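Need tokens for this chain, all 219 residues.
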Amino acid sequence: MDKLEAIRERHSVRQFTDRPLEAGAVAALQKETDEVNRESGMHIQLITNEPEALDAGKPSYGSFQGCRNYLAVIGPKGRDVDAGYWGQRLVIRAQELGINSCWVAMTYKKGKAKGDVAPGEKRYIVIALGYGKTQGVQHKSKDITAVSDYKAGDPAWYKAGLDAALLAPTAINQQKFRFTRNGDKVSVKAGFGFYTDIDLGIVKYNFEVGAGKGTEVWA
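Here are the structure tokens for all 219 residues:
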């Protein structure tokens, strides 16, 4: 499974089985987390076998059930976009490893969540991980022209990037972002709403993968 395939197959999952994460998958995801932190200066931490933050011992907690693993997306304050971008890189790596996921902003017990938060840092969000009871379902999506200036005749890479961006999870599926293109450079802005800066980072990561471009694509 390559990254674009993982983006297409990955859907939010909130109900998990009791099956522990496989040791090899944990090692691979930890390796990716360490690499992400080295590249980004973030302090994201992989937490396994921890039942309290999402109350795995209860039949259900909010819309969650049985979640005992998560990524604590921690980093320096003021880096919401990076929290989304680098967190999504880990989400897609987890999907490649057969691990389902869900971004969790509000419905977890913040006082129970693990993860070392150093001075000057904050916990932005957590990402639930595990083996889902299902693979989830595709979210409803806006039309490509509702989130961009795309028009017939634009480069194929631009459309491919936008298609991938529309597959990105966003808070309450609001998809409040807008892409514009000027030649080989692209800009994207977040709209107003809950967690839109984190959403922006997630969307940027997906766009790069779909377009086959690196960070040099951004204006």
